[in-house]
Amino acid sequence: MPIRRIVAAVLFAWLPAAHAGLPAPVAEVLSSRGIPEESVSAFVIRDDTIVLDHLADRARAPASTMKMVTTAAALDLLGPVFRARTELLAVGDVKAGVLEGDLVLRGGADLDLSPAALEKMMLSLRNQGIRRIAGKMIVDRSLFNPARLDAGVPPFDEYPDAYYNVIPDAVIVNGNLIEVDMRSTGAAMKLAMWPALEGVSIASEMELIDAPCAKWEDGWKTPEVRSEAGGKLKVVLRGTFPKYCDSAYQVNVIDRQEYTGRAMQSAWKRVGGVFKGEVVEGKTPETARVLAEHTSRMLPELVRDTNKTSDNLFARTLYLALGSLESDPVRGSRPIAGAETQSTLVRADASVRAWMRSNGIGDDGLVIENGSGLSRLERITPIQMAGVLRAASNGNWLPELQASMPIAGVDGTLRRRLKGTPAAQRARLKTGTLKDVVALAGYVPDAAGRTHIVVVMVNDERVGNGNGRAITDALVEWVARQGTVPSGPSPVF
Question: Of 262, 252, 119, nearest to 178 (Cα)?
């Protein structure tokens, strides 16, 4: 049985039959951009009516609209009071201000673990009378299996240092990013970096050129990290940079174990602590006791940051949380018993599929690689995506999900789109963009105030240069105009 009929038999079998063909405004844009209708799949429903079904049973690459699946499932399965937690634990006794064993940083998928949060936890240790750590510092990433999902993974594209390419793990301090402040004169560059990392410095080998400051990224090359004497590291900027220019940029170039360990040492030093040992990866001993902890913001705030700006690290971490954590009414979250013995990605995939099936959504043809849409493999049909949005509409947490979605012409990844159209300030849609992929999925009120669930995906090598966005935006604008009284004969399709 075709995928369409398998899914619709469960979710949409009782709805009236859909109209055929794309709306005229969309068809016109397709024709003018040279993109065939076969490259587009679209599905629009309003209450109990299928308004549009165009190749909606085809599994397409969804790009970042896949974040709607991850965040809708997370809100339902983890709940709105879910908070991820990071812990500092001690192994050994404290005598005369000395921790005679190891200090463990145990990760819990805490997306808000900043340098300031780490320093605050270290300050708590000082306030408990600890001034020196005699053992090791241990970083425990074992919540996820494998603990280092980034190990041996080839770069997604030619920008491995970019934030959107950061691969998550259970301990991720500040997104593993350093922020570089760059200022040039006609003959030299002045650099500063944040946060401070123990034994890490920054230098420039960039050639200063005559070029517009606004185009500085054109000459950027991935920085090089060099080992120096005494275990120190130097981040070396490469490429070209305009004269008389200043800019700031965040880069992910330091190995995360190095980054985390040096951030821990730096935070401990800033609060007056002493440490001369080594930093290693490992698991928390059963005898360890919690000395300090940090909890993230509650899930709806994390979901908002995920969808408004299309944050891949947030989405991927929440997806992994679905395979490793459950909500705890007191502490915010706790590891699922026994989860560490299985692949976290496999468990997350099973969790999302089970949630979809429980809401009457078939999963045939569905492919989830990391839950963010930053993937060449992920696939979903518009019917399935509409099912997710419909399940959210019927669930308890629709306000939280909708509050996370970009508003047309106002904020997030839609702030510059659909301005001056009937959808502006009203439609809430998740965007999706990859090479050869443009997509939208969300809720669009029409002129009569009736909410439509709209999903459209364009998979074609010609979607660049605004072509794909013109198609998806034309469909949204067409939906937003529904419910008006026509001024004259004009066919709907």
Answer: 252
- Cα(211)–Cα(208) distance, rounded to whole angstroms? 9
Paired strand residues for 280: 138
| Nearest C-alpha neighbor of 275 from the set 283, 284, 266 | 266
Q: Give the residue from 417, 486, 462 showing the smallest Cα distance to 29.
A: 462
d(CA 107, CA 111): 10
Residues 6+ apart with CB under 8 A from 93: 99, 100, 101
Nearest-angstrom CA–CA distance, 284 and 105: 8
pLDDT of residue 484: 72
Q: What is the pLDDT of residues 318-367, one digit of tens each?
A: 999 999 999 999 999 999 999 989 999 999 999 999 999 999 999 999 99
Of residues 70, 121, 129, 140, the one with CA closest to residue 351: 70
User: Which residues are bridge partners to 85 per DSSP?
Assistant: 295
How would residue 48 be classed by pLDDT, with cut points 50, 70 and 90?
A: confident
Give the C-alpha separation, 482 to 476, whole Å.
Answer: 10
In angstroms, the CA 406 to CA 404 distance is 7
**Whether the Cβ atoms of residue 434 and residue 471 lie closer than 8 Å to each other:** no
The proportion of the chain whose per-residue pLDDT surpasses 70, expressed as a percent, equals 94
Q: Give the per-residue pLDDT at 21.
A: 81
Give CA 467 to chain center in angstroms. 25
Q: Long-range contacts of range 400-403, CB-CB < 8 Å, 24 or more positions apart?
A: 400/75, 400/80, 400/299, 400/300, 400/303, 401/68, 401/71, 401/72, 401/75, 401/303, 402/428, 402/443, 403/300, 403/304
The two three-digit tokens of residue 202, written as one number: 């920054």
- pLDDT score of 20: 60
- Cis, peptide link before residue 146, omega less than 30° from 0: yes
- Residues 434-446 have a mean pLDDT of 98
- For residue 486, pLDDT over 60 is answered with no
Contact 270, 118 (CB under 8 A): no
* Residue 141 near residue 170, CB atoms below 8 Å: yes
Taking alpha carbons only, the member of 441, 59, 83 closest to residue 295 is 83
Amino acid, single-letter form, for residue 452: H
Q: Which residues contact 2 (CB under 8 A, 6 or more apart)?
A: 57
In the chain, the amino acid numbered 191 is L
- Compute the CA torsion angle 147, 228, 202, 251 (nearest 10 deg): -20
Nearest 5 degrees, angle CA 292-CA 324-CA 167?
85
Read off the tokens for 74: 């997370």
